[in-house]
Amino acid sequence: MSEQPLPTTGRAWHLENRPTGTPVPSDFALREVEIPAIDAGQLLVANEYLSVDPYMRGRMSDKKSYIEPFEVGAPMDGTAVGRVLASKAEGFAPGDYVTHFLGMRDYAVVDAQTAQKVDPNLAPLSTYLGVLGATGLTAYIGLTRFAKIKEGDTVFVSGAAGAVGSAVGQIAKLQGAGRVIGSAGSDEKVKLLTEEYGYDAVFNYKSGPVAEQLAQAAPDGIDVYFDNVGGEHLEAAIGALKLHARIVLSGMVSQYNDEKVVGPRNLWNLAVTRSDLLTFMVTEELDLMPDFVRDVGGWIGAGKLHFQETVMEGLENTMEAYLALMRGESVGKMIVKL
Asked: Which of 58, 82, 248, 256 could staple 47 via S-S, CB 3.0–4.6 A?
């Protein structure tokens, strides 16, 4: 039986315009692209699952950030997992599965040094983009290295039904937190977090002022705030801090579409409570990867850490998946299956 010829063309999503405010479908275009032959040290990968993430909104603008912006008229990228079709890199062979950073397309020519081999027999491939990937790692690093959870801590998580937030609450509990509180954008998500994910209290932030609902859920204040939302949530959390509390800034999804971002008005309470405001970059903390794989993999295997995915099928639906994510329509990790 002869080998199948390697593809020479594929499709990739391109940024057509830099969005003003909320992105719209016309800001993006799916175009045919040529697939070059691989050079030494490279892999040709057929992507099977793509990740869409809130941080992509920042890359659609040309503002200074921790990662380079997308170029107008050029292919976009993101995290993906796929099967190696051809390899000119030691340690990789056709049939291997890898995660890498050239998503938003069906085929990718990847520098092997940027790829990570994964085992589809240990966990479903899609989980390497979520709970066993960057989002799970974000939760683990933020809590372990920066929040430094202590026994009995009261932890508040915004965006608690999202890919990062849903992991944060569970990991905090597993690390000894005494009470975990979350916010979410629907009553269905509130029910999921309390009944399946083990949150002690969850409120629907659309049902009333965040500060008032947080005060009811944590009348004695909070020791840790894991922020995925920013805006009103961050201000409410700053107002609820106990002495020597810790705030971990993971994301500010409520403000990604805003041209002008207004900061919290009560920052002085950080000084009053002698609290820490902490930020981090996952790629600078990868020494924790072995601990992450051991702990989170073990918790999943033991049934102690639960996760959900929202899956949309088809490369052509990738940007609709992203827009749905930003509208708050997903539960857990948003994944595109090719």
From this structure: 82
